[in-house]
């Protein structure tokens, strides 16, 4: 994968050409606080009302999040509760504001991809139906985010590197619908060598010249589609877990990811830069379309494994053709939005003025 550098980001002389912001800073702060309180409420439900917490988190918030990242990644980045948690030390003047080297940022990004691939199969083994376990996972992530925010400058420690959701943001968010103001960074400290928020058409293929990050980008582009396909072939295991269940939960997504990755590596051989960018977009579109292909029917009780990941049971109400119709509509929309519609080269957010 070819590395692209900061020349793709907004240069200082182009800042005046940035689109006007959507909301004043105070409005963003209110939204951040509200979403953070929602996050606290969900974690509380996971601990004390686990069935409700599971429905709110895994069956409502998580299914909506990928579409939000596809459409308006900048808005998601501004209001994500974990981002608010990670950046709280910096906003309150409690961060050591250390600089992370590009090499370390690239390695942390690979760690984020590995964490994503290890955590997702755990949903079938426990997280999908065990509220306290899910709460422990979220609280652990919040603790790590606070530590990284306390040590390192702005978004470099968590939002731009170690967060396991960040690779998905970069995979899905290359064709944003709008550019919004950066509601966290008061000034640009150049904390991330390639800022994901202010780089035009940011994608997981845009990496620093770091081998670990290039590897992570290749894994996400080429392997995530197959990984999601394999993951959706596995049911939730509610009983006693053994090695067989553990093997199946990981073997399906990892085998699917390997097949998808090998196919991608074969197809990209000999492609020029423009052709490779299109191939990357095809695979990103295939990944998110695959997710909703299975997820929408499952949410309504008519999925591959009825009852698993269900928000509301409409299996006795929906017509037999609904699953196929939902799959057709979601896939066609995503193909249009991510591949066919005219796209302007724009960033997720407006870069704030440089600190110096």
- How would you state the average pLDDT, rounded? 92
- Please state the overall shape, judged from the principal axes of the Cα atoms: globular
Strand order of the largest sheet: 1-2
Calculate Rg over CA atoms.
20 Å
How many domain units?
A: 1
Q: What is the string of SSEs from the N terminus onward?
A: HHHHHHHHEHHHHE
Number of strands: 2
Explained architecture:
The chain is mainly alpha-helical and 356 residues long. It has one domain (6-350). It is 60% helix and 1% strand. It has helices at residues 25-48, 50-71, 73-79, 81-91, 102-127, 131-151, 158-162, 166-172, 211-231, 243-267, 273-299, 322-340, and strands at 180-181, 349-350. Strands 1-2 form a two-stranded parallel ribbon. The longest helix has 27 residues, at 273-299. 42% of the residues are buried.
Features:
single chain, 356 residues, disordered N terminus
Layout of strands and helices, then pairs:
Elements (H helix, E strand, L loop, with lengths): L24 H24 L1 H22 L1 H7 L1 H11 L10 H26 L3 H21 L6 H5 L3 H7 L7 E2 L29 H21 L11 H25 L5 H27 L22 H19 L8 E2 L6
Parallel strand pairs: 1-2
Helix pairs in contact: 1-2, 1-4, 1-6, 2-3, 2-11, 4-6, 5-9, 5-10, 9-10, 9-11, 11-12
